[in-house]
Amino acid sequence: MHSKDLKKPDGRNITLYSNQPIPDGLTAPSPFPDPQHANPHLRWHPLRGEWVTYAAFRQNRTYQPPPQYNPLAPTGDPEHPTEMPAGEYEIAVFDNRFPSLALESHDPPSVTVPTAPANGHCEVIVFTQDPESSLASLPLSRIELLLQVWGDRTARIGGRHHIHYVLPFENRGAEVGVTLHHPHGQIYCYPFVPSVPARMLAQEREYFLQHGTSLLCDMARDEAADGKRVLYQDEYAIAFVPACARYPYEVWVMPTAPCKDFAALTPPQREGLARALKTVLLKFDALWNRPFPYLMAWYQAPTDGAAHPETQLHAQFYPPYRTKDRLKYLAGTELAAGMFAMDVLPETTAYELQQVEVSLEESA
């Protein structure tokens, strides 16, 4: 993996990545000449026992621009710069202009609940220079590079500036709130372990203390033995619809052997994980012969300096559709009680996805 660090005119950082050497002479553009001076803050939710971040300036962020004003496309006209430089590279990561968390946050307001500076970090990761592409259509070598980039970002930011958790994710589709359709994701770096991964980590830790093994690795082993919900499996990685799925087309992707984070992936694990991920993405798009919306979230060990042998790197996909033309809305029992209600069995949706044939070689 090759990388090159550049600085934008408004002071933000951008890093370019490629499987090949990146040429010298590239400059980092920005649609904005001046710094944002973002100053989000946190407010404590006493009933839920969790932080909420507030960043009112995000109301004015870029929203559904026409294709000719795509801020994630490479700059073609220096008089009208985008976020991306022209040149030979494969992936770019830059500081979010409209962050929900910012390392420089300071002086939170005084209100009726505890507050704190939102001292985290938010990045945008652009998967390709091609605005008409998608993560599913990228070659396996690019997906393997992406896994390396996520590891590099975690290593660079995690553990520094009191960052305790790094969460890469991709929102795809207007149905999940995407405002820019160029293939990209985000990386949120938190000064604490957020409530969802914290709860999962607690379950993993309790299981590890009782059994001495990884909860997720044991779940993957059982899914592989059962086979009813498996979508992809090789020696190093597996993808399956979990028996406890909360969304009809929910899928988990992970290494089969213990691996706490992206940096811990071996080359064979990374290759297997890329093939598993691409298989799932292709099956999604081929299921109804149209782009398939989802939230893809990658969970890994906290960056708090502890060993965390209990946890396992894995992705969870949350697609919003429950049928070809019906969305699954989170309503009364999901939002008010936190208990999901499923109208379809995971075995049924897994069977649908199993019947979708895809070819990794042809798509690459």
UniProtKB/TrEMBL annotation:
Region described as Disordered: spans on this chain: 1-41, 63-83
Annotated signal peptide: none
Biased amino acid composition, Basic and acidic residues: 1-11
Domain Galactose-1-phosphate uridyl transferase N-terminal positions: 38-194
Domain named Galactose-1-phosphate uridyl transferase C-terminal: residues: 203-357
Transmembrane residue ranges: none
Superkingdom of origin: Bacteria
Family according to the record: Belongs to the galactose-1-phosphate uridylyltransferase type 1 family.
Protein name (Swiss-Prot/TrEMBL): Galactose-1-phosphate uridylyltransferase
Gene label: galT
